[in-house]
Design brief:
Helix content of chain B: 10-25%
CATH superfamily of the largest domain in chain B: TolB, C-terminal domain
Number of strands of chain B: 32
CATH class of the largest domain in chain A: Alpha Beta
Helix content of chain A: 40-55%
CATH superfamily of the largest domain in chain A: OmpA-like domain
CATH architecture of the largest domain in chain A: 2-Layer Sandwich
Strand order of the largest sheet of chain A: 1-4-2-3
Order of helices and strands of chain A: HHHHEHEHEHE
Shape of chain B: elongated
Largest sheet of chain A: 4 strands, mixed
Radius of gyration of chain A: 18 Å
Distance between the termini of chain A: 23 Å
Strand content of chain B: 35-45%
Number of domains of chain A: 2
Largest sheet of chain B: 8 strands, mixed
Distance between the termini of chain B: 28 Å
Structural class of chain B: mainly beta
Oligomer: heterodimer
CATH topology of the largest domain in chain B: Neuraminidase
Chain lengths: 165, 449
């Protein structure tokens, strides 16, 4: 019984993607139904969230306030969470390597909280969002240059409870 | 013979451990107190004291090997301190043939040895290792130190460190530190996904072992004042939390469960309390936990980041970092709570303050114009001196005598690697502390009992 329900929801989500959001998907579906899956991840997936919605927002050096761009991405995240009510997430806060370890843990906590608070104030239930700081322990970009550091000053929503792709 | 004070100290047993230390009678004439040989170590340049360490004499051929090894460890300690020049044995004119016969001082003065160390190694009747040593002032022609140590033969390295500590303390007037350990974070794996585990070793790098269970992602270990346990941060639960591990039993436990991340722990000087940071809803404040009942007392309440606290040696105050003034700076406040006084006023950001065991100095990390420095200042913030500089120097920890700082230095880029360093608080004698893998977050133990 349970598995059938999930299968129906999954199919409905796939249909929704074809009919509403993406013209290319509709065209592809019209010409070759098999290629539908290859043109983009289904909107209820982790992959869709990470790539299409955007799983991360970035911060200036030693700051945790949200830029206009960050707020735009977080708004899209909030909408996605509304559309995928079974999903939870861990909001990871990160810092670049240009600070001390303990301060960066605290700074990462500020960033994770800034992103989490925005999502909550945009309708996501607080119980669905945990936060954790990694400080400078898990850089996404490994260089020691401005571009790498900019990529590492981030808050990343790691979603759980959605199909991966 | 020695003074009555030394006689009183003879054969005193240091509780709980295998080392028995006692004073030796002088090999020659009466001890004169008028002309003590001593290095004065201040800031700036100084000349290392030339010292000759003659071969420790084995009482039996079976003791030859350990006698050689003892000598090597003692010389290495003295050399690494940066305060001594160890004269090569090839330059020696005379070898003292009999441990209890006075040395021919002229022979040692001729090779410019200000101090001479002699020693003897034997197996006591109960199988223990008995090491005796003397320190002579070659100018004053007198013995200035004479001690004997009795230990389990397996602890011979500790005996060597105790001998080196005896020589060092007598000649510098500083407290001992060679018989101590360092706990640190061993780092392997790629920069984006480091495996970090706790390791502990003697201060000279020997006897390295890994602490069981402290693996995956662990950070910032801190020694307890009794040398028996270590506080550290682990991501075991998925979120950073403070753990306490017993070095003897290997038992470890999380220090309470809190809503939010706990980190930056440090013991009080009496070992009964832990100051730590608790981060809730993005805000980080300082708390003190009483270990006996795990009761938490809040120290700070404000929207700033308050972290990296360190007790004064008398336990009455803490120094910590806060960005309450707009940037990361150092503050001091009473341990009982109350207003905090800012003590750092230079350019740049200040973090990771640690209070010297001597009480008069605070060491810190300073970030200035894109570079990281280890520095020291007085507790009122005056006399700031930067001792080191690199792409990333961080996290100083004092040797138990407050004379040396260990910290870590990380190189930039994808292949960036952290290593342990040490430097004298005068700014002299910057050294790499060798470890098998990359290493960070060193914390120095007290002198072992």
């Amino acid at each position: 019984m349970k598995t059938i329900t999930i299968a129906i929801i999954g199919a409905a989500a796939l249909l929704a993607a074809c009919s509403s959001s993406d013209d290319e998907n509709v065209d592809a579906a019209a010409t070759n139904s098999a290629s539908t899956i290859q043109t983009g991840p289904a909107p209820n997936t982790v992959e869709y969230f990470n790539v299409v919605v955007g799983d991360r927002v970035f911060f200036d050096t030693d700051r945790h306030d949200l830029s206009t761009e960050a707020q735009f991405i977080l708004s899209k995240q909030a909408q996605w969470f509304a559309e995928n009510p079974g999903v939870t997430a861990v909001i990871e806060g990160h810092a670049d390597e240009r600070g001390t370890r303990e301060y960066n843990l605290a700074l990462g906590a500020r960033r994770a909280n800034a992103a989490r608070s925005f999502l909550i104030s945009n309708g996501v239930d607080a119980s669905r969002l945990r936060s954790v700081s990694f400080g400078k322990e898990r850089p996404a970009a490994l260089g020691s240059d401005e571009n790498s550091w900019a990529q590492n000053r981030r808050a990343v929503a790691v979603v759980e409870g959605a199909p991966s792709s | 013979m020695r003074t009555t004070k030394d006689a009183a100290a003879a054969m005193r047993l240091i509780a709980g451990i295998a080392l028995l230390i006692g004073a030796l009678c002088g090999a020659d004439r009466a001890y004169a107190q008028s002309t003590p040989l001593e290095i004065t170590v201040g800031g700036g340049q100084f000349e290392p004291l030339p010292v000759a360490v003659s071969d420790f004499q084995p009482a039996t051929p079976a003791m030859e090997l350990v006698a050689d090894d003892l000598g090597s460890v003692i010389e290495a300690d003295l050399l690494r301190s940066g305060l001594f020049r160890v004269i090569p044995k090839a330059a020696f004119i005379a070898q003292p043939t009999e441990f209890n016969t006075p040395p021919v001082y002229a022979d040692w003065r001729a090779i410019k040895a200000d101090a001479l160390v002699t020693g003897r190694v034997e197996q006591a009747s109960d199988g223990r290792l008995l090491v005796q040593f003397r320190v002579f002032d070659t100018e004053a022609e007198e013995q200035i130190e004479g001690l004997q140590l009795l230990s389990d033969p397996a602890d011979w390295r500790r005996v060597a460190h105790k001998v080196a500590d005896g020589i060092y303390s007598k000649l510098t007037g500083e407290g001992p530190y060679f018989d101590s350990r360092v706990v640190f974070v061993d780092e392997t794996g790629p920069k984006g996904d480091r495996r970090k585990r706790l390791a502990i070793m003697d201060q000279d790098g020997a006897n390295l072992r890994y602490l069981p269970g402290a693996d995956g992602l662990v950070l910032t270990p801190r020694f307890s004042p009794n040398d028996q346990s270590v506080l550290y941060i682990s991501y075991d639960t998925g979120e950073p939390q403070v753990y306490l591990t017993n070095l003897d039993t290997g038992q470890r436990e999380m220090l309470g469960t809190f809503p939010g991340m706990t980190f930056a722990p440090r013991f009080s000087p009496d070992g009964g309390q832990v100051v730590l940071s608790l981060s809730q809803d993005g805000n980080t404040d300082l708390f003190v936990m009483r270990l006996a009942d795990r009761q938490m007392r809040r120290l700070t309440t404000n929207p700033a980041i308050d972290t990296s606290a360190s007790f004064s040696p008398d336990g009455s105050q803490i120094v910590f970092e806060s960005d309450r003034g707009g940037s990361q700076q150092l503050y001091i406040m009473p341990t009982t709570g109350g207003p905090a006084q800012r003590i750092s006023f230079g350019k740049g950001n200040y973090g990771t303050p640690v209070w010297s065991p001597r009480g008069d100095t605070i060491a810190f990390t300073k970030i200035l114009s894109g570079r990281f420095h280890i520095g020291v200042m007085r507790t009122d913030g005056t006399d700031e001196r930067l001792l080191s500089s690199s792409f990333l120097d961080e996290g100083p920890t004092f040797s138990p005598n407050g004379r040396v700082l260990a910290f870590f230095r990380e190189s930039p880029g994808q292949a960036g690697r952290a290593q342990l360093m040490s430097i004298d608080i005068s700014g002299q004698n910057l050294r790499v502390v060798e470890t098998p893998n990359a290493a960070s977050d060193p914390a120095w133990s007290p002198v072992r009992k």
